[in-house]
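Title: Request for sanity check on Polyprenyl synthetase family protein prediction

Description:
We are preparing a figure and want to confirm that the structure record we downloaded matches what your pipeline produces today. Could someone re-run it with the sequence below and paste the raw structure tokens into this thread? We only need the token string, no images.
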Amino acid sequence: MTFHGVDTVSPVLDEYGAMVREVMGAYLPKEEPRQYLYDPVADYPTRGGKMMRPSLCIATARAFGAEPARAARAAAAIEMLHNSLLIHDDIEDESEERRGRPTLHAMHGIPIALNAGDTLAMLSIRPLLENVYDTIPWLALPIIHDMERMARESAEGQALELGWRKDPGARPTRDDYLLMVLKKTCWLAAIYPCRLGAMLGTRGKIASDAFIRFGFFFGAAFQIQDDVLNLRGGPAYGKEGCGDLWEAKWTLMLIDVAKALEDSEKPRFEAYLRKSRDDRTEDEIAWLFDKMEAIRAIENAQAFARGLAGAALREFSILLADVPDGRDKRFIRDLITWTFRRDH
């Protein structure tokens, strides 16, 4: 992989992120009940974030010839849905921080947070429907079909991850982890944003499997790097350090640790898995982190992620071979290597 000296990613994320936030503002109600619904609904969307998913949608749409305004509305739908899922993820993961601030359920309680997440998910459909009906009515059904598949894949991936944490006897393999990531991360982070953008730009003339391989390779590389960053946490990452270990999430690193344990260490690991998050101790987290370092699990995961990124670059060169070179095409290409330069 080549790291380019000029930052072609951050300026586009800033520009397209601002564009999407402005569009989202029109779809976040400013009416009653504000305190118990619409203020919490607007909380996560106004906290910032990388804006990678909506920017990828806009860049793909523009690379294939779509108008910026049309692409921005589609991107706003993706960002709204993403934030709705973050609200639910934080509840399911018992997370304490999101983007450097307390999670929504920590601030308002689980019932209000759940209702806000549900409402934001439903509101995310509005810009998408208005977009296609105003411009290309016959694209509405294919786009909604794709959105339905993305939502289903995401739910299935989340179910796998939650199920492994619920079952202390679960021992997912690397292949299991990659299947979970394909479903939970890749469809929303890369596959659907690219497919939606390409559908808008080509007016639906894309192959039925377009961007699935690219989105998997890029999305999996992004998720593995995110798992690595989670181990240190802090203000830049926006969540507590080693949050995945406190939550007993099966990352590539934890999978490698489980395989490397001595027989004498296995009872301690089993006890860790059976505990609730609140009952896990600093000593247990430090022990597992030290085991990861001892077997070079973190370095191995990063090397694996870089291999996936290389495969994503190859898929990119095939998918966009006929697209003229330009700012948006370069952004998509360089976003792949940017994954390893980010700190959150």
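Thanks, this matches our download. The longest strand covers residues 97-98.
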